[in-house]
Amino acid sequence: MTEARGSLGPNGEQHAGHAPGTPCWVSLMVHGVATTQEFYGALFGWEFRPGPQQLGPYARALLDGQEVAGIGQLPPDRHLPVAWTPYLASDDVDLTAETVRMCGGTVGVGPLDAAEAGRLAIASDPAGAVFGVWQAARHQGTGVTGVPGTPVWNELVTFETASVVKFYETVFGYTRETLAPAGLDYVTLQVAGRPVAGLHGAGGALPRQRGPHWMTYFQSADVDASVARVRELGGLVLTPAAESAHGRVALVADPEGARFSLMENPG
């Protein structure tokens, strides 16, 4: 597992752009924006800047002045799940949306303009997992990586990979790598030979109440300390911290129930 975007650096470098198909942004829509901002601000050290206004009550999270994620207000009349959503880069969001439809996916929102920031759509794959598509203008996406509090990986958790991997390959032009331990249904998606995201076929272990979904991993300097902080701030620890092939990992949820993973890369 490696970092989740193109043109990356290991020490918090800024990034100029993202190749098509690369996860470039993560966004969370919630009922209580202020309390959610307090949670993530205390956990990751984020500060917030409002906008773009076209997205309603929405704010961009900043770490040391660089944008890393977005948190917005769910419309009160829409009973949608509270979940982190990755946005995949596109040079032409309208064409990407049409390809999503042609390949058996659904476009739920857009394509629409977010003022001078860019153009977006929100879609779901044939199994129902929701993701965003972002065509950058002024807003290129996540501006810093490789430091605690930034997205480090995005992974689709689905029933089985064979039925959806062709969808993502066709829509975004990925190549695949299937170097996984025997018995593990796992595919790594690559852009220009670099791993950018993973597909994990969980089979019967996939929670019925969740269904297929994308999972965002945020980097942590100390996962155990971050897990303790999540508890202090009113979140939940769903899977305690444990060692993995890619570092120490824990699955947690914020006070509104949005799940995310914490990852501490091995030193």
From TrEMBL:
Annotated VOC domain residues: 150-265
CDD domains, per database record: SgaA_N_like
Superkingdom to which the source organism belongs: Bacteria
InterPro entries linked to this entry: Anthracycline_SecMetBiosynth, Glyas_Bleomycin-R_OHBP_Dase, Glyoxalase_6, VOC_core
PANTHER family for the chain: CONSERVED PROTEIN (PTHR33993:SF10), GLYOXALASE-RELATED (PTHR33993)
Protein name: VOC family protein
